[in-house]
């Protein structure tokens, strides 16, 4: 696992995937860095709970974050708590409480996932018109409701650690078959892509 290495054309090796791997193997990380294992593990649970996109139990999460912050201060009284850790443990609950949807849904993960589509489209064309036309077609296909029902199901919350599940509001099982549109509903939407491209700058 490469940490803080320069990657040609991509910045550094410090990525979200690297951070997830770092905290997922908290026992190994604690043994190597000699940082308290309980602190790393609890930080991992908080971050997973906040990013999983599920409804959080505010009271339970607040208590868990407070206990984690107190543990950090108790184990490392000589080291000032980093600002980002303070925001995570103290203010994340306050932000979550006032959001209309789970805080994990507000992340930029979906936006960043679309970057590979933009990059793929730009590599194939040289003219602006064809690039925009292909990009519109790609995004219309990816956002089509009917095609979305054919995608691989999202990762189930049962895969989350038990400690994280205790921070969430219990989920009521939903029959996904009932959520599908009736067969007689036509979800095909005809879009004049050429017109959209020509009037893109208007």
Automatic annotation (TrEMBL):
The lineage of its organism: Eukaryota, Metazoa, Ecdysozoa, Arthropoda, Hexapoda. It comes from the Eukaryota. It comes from Parthenolecanium corni. This is Uncharacterized protein.
